[in-house]
Amino acid sequence: MAVLAMRDALNQALREEMKRDESVFLLGEDIGLYDGSFKVTRGLMKEFGEKRVLDTPIAEEVIIGTAIGAAMSGLRPVAEMMTVNFIMVAMDQVVNAAAHIRYMFGGGTKVPLVIRTPGGGGHQLGAQHSHSHENWFAHVPGLKVVAPGTPADAKGMLKSAIRDDNPVMFIENEGTYAVKGEVPDGEHLVPLDKNEVKRAGEHITICAHSRMLIVAMDAATELEKEGITAEVVDMRALRPLDMAPVIESVKKTSRLITVEEGWRSYGVGSEIASRVYEEAFDYLDAPVARIGAAEVPAPYNKRLEKIAFPGKADVIVTARALLGKN
Amino acid sequence: MATVQMPRLSDSMETGKILRWLKKEGDEVQKGEPLVEIESDKANIEVEAYASGKLSKILVPEGESAPIGAVIAEIGGEANAKADKPAAPQGQAPAAEPKQGAKTSSADAPKPQATKPEAHVAQADKAMAGTAQVAAEAGGEQYPHGGPDDRTEVGAAGEAALNVIRRPSQQENGERIKVSPVARRLAEEQNVDLNRVKGTGPGGRIQKEDVEAAVQQASRQPAVTTAPAAAAPSQRPATARPKDAVEVVELSKLQTTVAMRLAQSKFSAPHFYVTSEIAMDDAVRLRQMFNEAVDKSDAISLNDLIVKAVALALTKFPEVNASWADGRIERKRDVNIGIAVGLPDRLIVPVLRNADQKSLKEIATESKQLIERARSNKASAQDYLGNTFSISNLGMYDVDQFTAIINPPDSGILAVGSIEDKAVVQGGQVVPGKRMRVTLSVDHRVFYGVTAAQFLQEVKRLLQSPMALVL
Q: What span, in angstroms and rounded, lies between the C-alpha atoms of B326 and B318?
């Protein structure tokens, strides 16, 4: 098992799948000659050629529309949106076409498409370039939405996504590409519909995905020093949303914090909280606490930005408050 | 002294190459002045000095590369001893050890001060340089350009969650106990009386631990408790009975409403009761004479006489013809008498309006119509509204006396028993007499014992001298 950065784990998954199946091809802005804005596609154009790694114009609707057509024709495209902020102009393709076509044709055609795209804020890129939109996609039947937070899951879930016959929104995070972790070599598949306890604990459950998983894990480490053991559930599978490990955990801890990088309102945490109220109400000791970005367009100012996005301090203080320890 | 670190100039940059130092060792450097030209994988960028002072040492010469965060030069403090350290963006290393290198811990990061403006940063790429102290080396780089997660105070991001948790508990008027769902379930399972459990959660909420503690405490004192732990979980009395031993009766909407309102009245209005015995000989005689004189359809009942007597008495006692209204008393100008009518499946109280102003004949006719409409389910909502005082008469069922629950929003109700033939003492002689016991229920918040007694005396006077009722 090698220690790889997230970007290299993703690169490995792409390379392995392209070798395994020649119907897999990549398209996106700057992914070929320039190796990708975040270097996820490094070396792939050189290795697989310009027919399987396409540098496209800056036209997101064209990228996704082309990918949908290719997928319907039997290929397995992996489209890269440079960041999730740019996908908004292509939402018609994502929702009205990719998500719905298979249903509207009575199953007569399928859309085996992966859209890879990083979200997240905290990089002083201003309000327009700091979005986290996984909840937008997770709202739509017909899409699968995943957001891994470790290099191993990134590799395993991307490989599964490429092999899936449905459109998969594969949400990455600009802040995690350099995060390193052990990644199994070769055939390593992680299911798209299974969430997982990443750290066991007894006193409180923390749900998080993508970069916030790292924040949650860090917070759990700090909390342990105070005698509070937190169980961290990785919500990498957002749609279909696998609640089983959360419900099981809440039945044990009776307290839940959800952490997400996007805004709280109508967010991932809201959905998780509702499910918990439906399935484990009688096990709760306190209302579910939702942590998310402050309800403002992301500030550019560094200090404001820093308090606008969730950090481990938010999780720690919230955990203490839920446990009545302050 | 400040250090200059290799900035992050693009998302994918890992190392940067020094193309050209724009200042020599020993030169004075002003904050904001171009200092060094660096080549990243994306572009060549001039990097400005984030501090003023003498460029004391160049650690990475031109043509060589260094990883992000590595110290590439030092700016000494001689020329500008007060230094701009506090205003330096996070990425510029603080006055730490010069050889600190890439692994500068976040604890050393300078606390930003609002008083000094930051150096202007023209592009987002340059701004990212501010995170250079995060290690670029194996495993260490968790937040490549968001900066280290070194905030120790809760931010705006976490405040919304905290506000919910810390919201002060609302003042409840009633006796509602704040208890979490799991605590409530556990308390039921373990037979714990939540009234005896002290909540330690936010806002005094009773939590799981509180119930568990109560159970533990109880098990330590087995003699005192009802032994929830010792007994098997199956000792609930209901489970021992066969299922069909109980017939479940669903309530109609009306019955549900009546049940709720009566419970609310009984549990929120402090009731007290005053009983009096009334000589009904003259009233019975009056009724007999009245009914002999009129058509059968105009006949009056004893209850009509009582309604009239009560209505007239209420005009003299406005404090009785009143309601408790959220800490104030509302005295009603109209005298509207509710007459309780028991039907096989329900209890209803139709309202006879302005009873004080109506003749006995009118009262009799209207009561009959009201009760008939109620019996045949033809009553309108209007028929049940506006009562200011009510009468419940069980006289026809041979009861000596009883007490009634006040019918909201009234503050009094008169419970009327049967008329009995009794041996009574009159002028030293034992003679036969007709006697009726009435009991007044009073909402003690609205009026008190003396008023209740005086009101009852007036009712009694009117029924014992019933000619006043005919006027």
A: 19
